[in-house]
Design goal:
By secondary structure, this protein is α/β, with parallel strands linked by helices. Helices cover 58% and strands 15% of the residues. The strands form 2 sheets. Strands 1-2-3-4 form a 4-stranded mixed sheet. A 3-stranded mixed sheet has the order 5-6-7.
Length: 292
């Protein structure tokens, strides 16, 4: 559901978050639900502000129970250093809000109910987003770090699997907490949604190959030059094993060799990715190589 447009960014609220606000309403604590909504809103606003400062266009933001999803230019995902900074902005904003709230409390500007809850929400959102799993901010930072050593889709797949683990664990522990009356259903709902969101990230991972390649071709068009990397592989090796070694901001050439180590051809990164997307991950390099 769309809620507002601010600075050219369309903000909307996810149905799961609406349901969570409904739970707060049914429990007679809608005020706390609105405080939680404000905390998530400010968290995402920090992401959007830093992204724009880094020159990354932001079109819209969907608010979720544990943060949100900002739809930004594909440039962010394929530039690990920028993604690290933008991802860290949300949790950092929560820490700043905690310090600000406590400072106001020391000066007598405090609400006995909403003040502690505001601090609690910010701390929980900060700690929750530190978990190393997509689509959480901690997962995005870890993916950006890992993507500099393996390819982006492989890093996404690993961190999305971690996100599914955390979502399942939170849902199970939340269900136990409900049974012993330690917490409410909101914890279970948050865990289930995290599992669903991480699963969606995992499903989208293969499409990042094309996105990665488009970004490199754009950089080549703009600057006329890119750092290169050379890989050597046997011709019977499937393309998926080669793409695991592709890293951002470098264009790769794969030299194929026979069993005696003699060079039999050369394959550019463009041909490898095209074969992967059109013929499948197990197509051998011999099928796509160019002979001399």
């Amino acid at each position: 559901m769309r809620i507002c447009r601010l600075g050219g960014i369309q903000f909307s609220i996810n149905n799961w978050f609406l349901g969570l606000l409904g739970v707060y309403f049914a429990a007679g604590v809608l005020g706390k639900g609105l405080v939680a909504f404000a905390v998530v809103f400010l968290h995402e606003l920090a992401h959007a502000w830093v992204a724009r400062r880094k020159g990354i266009p932001v079109s819209d933001i969907e608010l979720l129970p544990f943060g949100g999803v900002a739809r930004m230019s594909s440039e962010l995902v394929v530039e690990p250093r920028k993604e690290m900074v933008v991802a860290a902005a949300g949790p950092f904003a929560n820490l700043v809000l905690c310090v600000l709230a406590l400072g106001l409390g020391h000066h007598g500007i405090w609400h006995d109910v909403f003040g502690p809850f505001f601090v609690q929400c910010n701390l929980l959102l900060f700690l929750f987003n530190l978990l190393p799993g997509l689509p959480l901010d901690g997962g995005r930072v870890c993916r950006a770090y890992l993507a500099q050593r393996v390819n982006l889709p492989a890093a996404t797949y690993r961190l999305a699997a971690c996100g599914q683990f955390w979502g399942g664990l939170i849902a199970v522990l939340g269900a136990v907490g409900v049974l012993v009356r330690f917490n409410g259903l909101d914890i279970v709902a948050t865990g289930l949604f995290l599992f669903y969101a991480a699963r969606r990230q995992k499903a989208e991972a293969p499409y990042l190959y094309a996105q990665h390649l488009i970004s490199k071709n754009r950089g080549l068009d703009e600057h006329g030059i890119l750092p290169g990397e050379v890989l050597v592989a046997r011709g019977d090796v499937p393309v998926w094993r080669v793409t695991r070694l592709f890293v951002p901001q470098h264009y790769h050439f794969v030299y194929t060799v026979d069993e005696q180590g003699r060079c039999t051809g050369i394959v550019g990164e463009t041909e490898v990715i095209k074969a992967l997307l059109e013929e499948g991950a197990n197509v051998p390099l011999d099928r796509v190589k160019k002979g001399f």
